[in-house]
Amino acid sequence: MNQVPISINRSRRKSVSLVTLVQLSVLASSLLGFAVLFQLYGSLNESLDWATAALPSPSVGSEGKFLPRVFAIYFPQFHPDPLNDRLWGANFTDWDNLRKAPAVNNKGFPIPRPLDSANLGYYDLRSKDTRKLQSQLASNYGVDGFIYHTYWFYDPAYEPDQPQPVLHAPLMAMKSDGYPNLPFFLNWCAVTWVNVWMGRPVFQDKDAPINKNKALTLQQQYFNATYDMVATHYRWLAQFFEMKNYVKIRGEPVFFVYQYSSEMDHILEKLRQFAVEEGYPGLYIILGRGSPPEHLLDMDQITGYAAKKIQRLDSFPSGDLVNQTMTYPYPSDHLNNLTLPRWCQDAQQIPAFPQFGRNKPEIYGLPITFDNTPRREFKTANVWNYGDVDVVVDNFRKRLEVMLTFDSCCWKSSYIVSERDRDNDERFVAINAWNEWAEGMSLEPSDVHEYRFLDTIREVKEKVLENQCKGPFLLGNHD
Q1: Which residues contact 295 (CB under 8 A, 6 or more apart)?
Q2: How far apart are CA 152 and CA 166, in angstroms?
Q3: What's the predicted TM-score (pTM) here?
Q4: SS3 (DSSP) at 370
């Protein structure tokens, strides 16, 4: 096999975890889940009267941090890109979908647009001023960092060129000018692109390929990559790993992957090998899965179509390949009645769910709202966490409070049967999203919710920090 050298500097590492540079206290493994369909997992049953109950002692780690960090997923679609030009026409961005969307969704509630007074508008992410303002907003309201979507296809995205990144101009600009200047790590969105947006790709004809769901395949993703192809991918990733604000855990760059397939194992192993050869202690791999958290819900309770779609923990590698798993922050019915588990108060009731014998406690994500009307036909669009503004914001507040309290107060080392306990750098919550406007998930100020989602993050962090695991709490709906 022709092995390509990856041009590395083997003497420059023994990195110190950069997560310790983050502000007050940041993200954490909380409690959420990804749903396959909105009508999925039901309520979580176990609830408790937290008005009088006291929680266990705070989960304070080696550096004395109480709260987990809060990271927001950062969507890069707001700039022209050659692949989108080929699929949708010249200079297409996701703003086009939002601009053509109706004023209200099929539930009768307004579809948020950027708030004029926030000075962001329908921005181009190649702009330094835009990204600098995003950084200031996040810092001011308690968002500790970003998880950047990246798109790397191992089959050529721009034929006849070799595999390469797409939609990466904002990352390259950030590397050049330093904004946003917050801690960050990368998510490899390792999925095939299909036609889920309203409209027809410019190249579509009657012979265009379709997948099993009858959606048009726009860009294929496959994993039979050669050594040389993975080396090329690593060289591109490494330029970000070396940045001072790239998140590292015990010196290992964090690399998130969604959606996991066992076919990618050999790629992940090679990427980690290249990181070690470059002088890093390793590559900290987090795999995202489409499932609710298994420490709260017995997977045997899920039947029928939903059971076929979820990604159970026992389908993920249990060895050294994976450092942590994350329940991807997508809307799900199980979030509607999110509460702390009964075992959090009673140390004698340690749950017997699979994650307690695996790797690390899972990382949990939380969607804000969801409305994909801009990308769907009006009648078939999915909407989640909708209603009057006060109701929508209060739902987000309750769920975030549960998650931050759960990670700060429930994850005691005695609960974790693995020999490998986690440290503070592994604790964070992922919020979906900072700016996915065409699915209604945006922390950025809007003409509907204004700054209230950002206000909520700051207020909830202050409240959980002040409470220090003492009741009373406002944690969801209880009987």
Answers
A1: 341, 351, 353, 355, 356, 361, 362
A2: 6
A3: 0.83
A4: strand
